[in-house]
């Protein structure tokens, strides 16, 4: 089997140029198998014949005369594993104690905002940029988020419109560090030229105030004293303490270059923390955590904790504990404990090491109840910071090229939240360890008519046609492919901007995607084994960018949610388009719409914004029909049922609501669910539902999935109570039909497919499941730092 399937994708653009042909890739290894939703498929164990031996599988159709378990039926499942998605590493995080939100910056410039109070849901997303290498994040004045990076600019993010408000050049070269004052009214940045710059935060922007005394080398870390009178700045080989009022350095503390008895050439202070008692805690490339007296500028205590760099530090708000991350993938927890049981004197003690990362820990954060760590960009070792003779200049500044140590660590891309059990009052799902690897937004769309999958990457799209088989077998069998999956198209974007969203029409004739500044629409034509692609030119100015794109079921309309809060309806006909209408946001509000859902008849459009509200529009009459009652948790997925026009909404707290659009009220089933409540194991799941769909011939069925389970909810069956086995809804097959019906409940769950990035019905008997095993991702990452093992 080959990825191209013996076919070459050919695009005939208006100018006659050839399309971007798919690059050589490994075979999809698509293997089909049979699958049926019954007792043995809900245990989470995968049958031997169905285990992942390739890139995809089709789990198959029911034999004639074989009864489906509890009426759930069986499906042929295309099991796809050729979505070669690798998440970007985490570069820095910033925790906001007021709103309990976490901002995360990745190595491709992407910034994500997680709502920790909403089951750690990724509620906001800002796409990356090739020229934007974010080195620092911080919150100021409550809900204002700032970032700075190696392009020398400070940026503020609009958390409502989901775009960048503005960018200000600090005129100090690349920015390595940033910190907001305790009051949130001032911003400090540490620059490449050794300068520390102070900015005043105004209601609309930031304004430069003054420079502090310039140092001899770059400022890699910053920390404010809680009183706001002094700051600590970490550099190469020393730590400076500044008086904020005068801007002068009052102390310069030289760090020890000794590492395992050997003097290192440089010692890089990766992080500093300034405590209210005047203690400065530093972490450096010599593997040390050191405590300094800022009043005298002397070293108080030193801990050697790693054989590699200690790269990050974060202190609890109460200053009774702090956490550090190392290049060996270990996170260490330090706590302030009494020297003796009856003593009032306290000391810092290393209490707990955690090894939740395979690669280096580039950043950490400390919330009141949890330790947060992120695997990030490969660390610069102490042999770095050498100027290359081939350096080039950009806008009058020198671009510095760095070299890496031979044993450089990579990135495992995980965001890990480890709860502090002594801080968690209720032992519920908040007390569980979480690893967030995949985005909480969809990267895959499907053309059901042509059985195509469109995969979204940061800078290109891939179009695949699913394979097929004519073989038959019994339930659970793996069947050979008679026709391999075809890689039809590799569509690369132009420019440095990342793709925000993309979609393929149900008929497979249209592809649309958007970056921050441009919107693209393509018309596809299929001729035997060839495909041609023509871009629709002269897009209207109001379609410069989109946050969400969706086609109608008949592929005649395109719905576009802009970052200004407007919803555009575009009529598609042949190879042209016509703008029909724009639903404008309410007066005085600019709320970005993050999710869209359209009814199968094309009459209703539902849109969910950043405030967790859902608006339903009448597409025929071009007006707002109703607004779903507000709920405290954000929407993670929604869809409109084809027969009833009921809107099914999933929220981040795992609640599922059904709202009747024609009647403008919740359905009886939804009211029954809220009265009885969901099973406690259902509510304790830690990954959000990302997709909802419906069976065309079974109106009582709701199909949904998260990253680790696929579920069919049968509304005609009773809900399970907490005493019922949620993941084992059927008794043994030798039981009578009466017993089986009496013990069956509404939830039929399969945990075979995971991590599950996408699952949907292609037709009434066929499913497609796209998996991305973590082992496949780790195999593509750079190697971790080398460790000395006994006997080697």
From TrEMBL:
Stretches for region Disordered: 1-70
One GO cellular component, as annotated: 90S preribosome
SMART domains xrefs: WD40
InterPro entries: UTP4, WD40/YVTN_repeat-like_dom_sf, WD40_repeat_dom_sf, WD40_rpt
Compositionally biased residues, Basic and acidic residues: 48-66
Pro residues bias (residue ranges): 20-30
Recorded GO MF terms: RNA binding
Protein name: UTP4 small subunit processome component
PANTHER family, per database record: U3 SMALL NUCLEOLAR RNA-ASSOCIATED PROTEIN 4 HOMOLOG
Underlying gene: UTP4
GO BP annotation list: maturation of SSU-rRNA from tricistronic rRNA transcript (SSU-rRNA, 5.8S rRNA, LSU-rRNA); regulation of DNA-templated transcription
């Amino acid at each position: 089997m080959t990825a191209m399937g013996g076919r070459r994708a050919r695009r005939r653009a208006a100018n006659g140029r050839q399309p971007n042909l798919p690059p050589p890739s490994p075979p999809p290894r698509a293997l089909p198998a049979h699958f049926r939703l019954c007792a043995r498929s809900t245990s989470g164990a995968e049958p031997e014949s169905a285990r992942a031996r390739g890139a995809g599988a089709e789990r198959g159709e029911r034999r004639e005369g074989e009864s489906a378990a509890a009426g759930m039926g069986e499906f042929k499942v295309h099991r796809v594993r050729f979505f070669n998605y690798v998440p970007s590493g985490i570069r820095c995080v910033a925790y906001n104690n007021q709103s309990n939100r976490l901002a995360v910056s990745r190595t491709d410039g992407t910034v994500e905002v997680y709502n920790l109070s909403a089951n750690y849901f990724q509620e906001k997303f800002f796409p990356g940029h090739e020229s934007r290498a974010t080195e620092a994040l911080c919150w100021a004045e409550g809900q204002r988020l700032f970032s700075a990076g190696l392009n020398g600019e400070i940026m503020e993010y609009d958390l409502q419109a989901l775009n960048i408000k503005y960018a200000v050049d600090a005129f100090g070269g690349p920015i390595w560090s940033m910190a907001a004052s305790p009051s949130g009214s001032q911003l400090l940045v540490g620059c490449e030229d050794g300068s520390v710059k102070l900015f005043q935060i105004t209601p609309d922007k930031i304004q430069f105030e003054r420079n502090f005394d310039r140092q001899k080398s770059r400022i890699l870390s910053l920390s404010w004293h809680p009183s706001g009178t002094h700051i600590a700045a970490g550099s190469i080989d020393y730590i400076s303490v500044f008086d904020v009022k005068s801007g002068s350095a009052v102390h310069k503390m030289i760090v020890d270059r000794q590492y395992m008895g050997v003097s290192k050439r440089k010692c890089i202070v990766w992080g500093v923390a300034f405590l209210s008692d005047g203690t400065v805690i530093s972490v450096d490339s010599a593997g040390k955590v050191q405590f300094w007296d800022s009043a005298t500028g002397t070293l108080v205590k030193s801990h050697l904790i790693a054989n590699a760099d200690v790269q990050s530090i974060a202190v609890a708000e109460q200053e009774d504990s702090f956490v550090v991350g190392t290049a060996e993938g270990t996170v260490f927890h330090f706590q302030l404990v009494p020297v003796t049981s009856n003593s009032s004197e306290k000391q810092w003690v290393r209490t707990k090491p955690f090894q939740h990362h395979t690669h280096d820990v580039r950043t950490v954060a400390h919330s009141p109840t949890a330790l947060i760590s992120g695997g990030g960009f490969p660390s610069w070792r102490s042999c770095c910071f050498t100027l290359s003779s081939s350096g080039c200049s950009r806008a009058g500044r020198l671009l510095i090229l760095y070299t890496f140590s031979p044993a450089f660590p990579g990135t495992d891309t995980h965001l890990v939240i480890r709860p502090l059990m002594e801080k968690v009052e209720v032992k519920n799902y908040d007390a569980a360890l979480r690893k967030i690897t995949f985005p909480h937004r969809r990267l895959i769309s499907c053309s059901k008519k042509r059985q195509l999958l469109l995969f979204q990457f940061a800078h290109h799209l891939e179009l695949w046609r699913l394979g097929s088989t004519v073989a038959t077998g019994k339930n659970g069998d793996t069947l050979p492919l008679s026709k391999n999956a075809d890689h039809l198209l590799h569509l690369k974007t132009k420019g440095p901007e990342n793709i925000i969203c993309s979609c393929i029409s149900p008929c497979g004739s249209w592809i649309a995607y958007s970056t921050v500044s441009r919107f693209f629409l393509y018309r596809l034509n299929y001729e035997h084994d060839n495909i041609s692609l023509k871009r629709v030119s002269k897009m209207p100015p109001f379609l410069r960018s989109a946050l969400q794109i969706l086609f109608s079921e008949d592929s005649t309309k395109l719905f576009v949610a802009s970052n200004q809060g407007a919803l555009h309806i575009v009529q598609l006909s042949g190879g042209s388009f016509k703008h029909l209408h724009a639903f404008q946001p309410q007066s005085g509000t600019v709320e970005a719409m993050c999710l869209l859902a359209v009814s199968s008849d094309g009459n209703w459009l539902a849109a969910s914004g950043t405030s967790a509200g859902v608006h339903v529009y009448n597409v025929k009459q071009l007006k707002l029909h109703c607004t779903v009652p507000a709920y405290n948790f954000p929407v993670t997925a929604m869809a409109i049922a084809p027969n009833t026009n009921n809107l099914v909404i999933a929220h981040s707290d795992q609640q599922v609501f059904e709202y009747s659009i024609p009647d403008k009220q919740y359905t009886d089933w939804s009211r029954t669910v809220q009265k009885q409540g969901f099973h406690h194991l259902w509510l304790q799941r830690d990954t959000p539902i990302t997709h909802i769909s419906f069976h065309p011939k079974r109106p009582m069925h709701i199909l949904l999935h998260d990253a680790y389970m696929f579920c069919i909810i049968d509304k005609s069956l009773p809900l399970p109570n907490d005493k019922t086995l949620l993941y084992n809804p059927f008794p043994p097959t030798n039981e009578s039909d009466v017993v089986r019906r009496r013990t069956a409940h509404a939830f039929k769950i399969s945990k075979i497919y995971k991590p599950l990035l996408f699952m949907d019905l292609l037709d009434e008997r066929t499913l497609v499941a796209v998996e991305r095993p973590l082992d496949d991702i780790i195999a593509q990452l750079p190697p971790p730092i080398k460790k000395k093992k006994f006997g080697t």
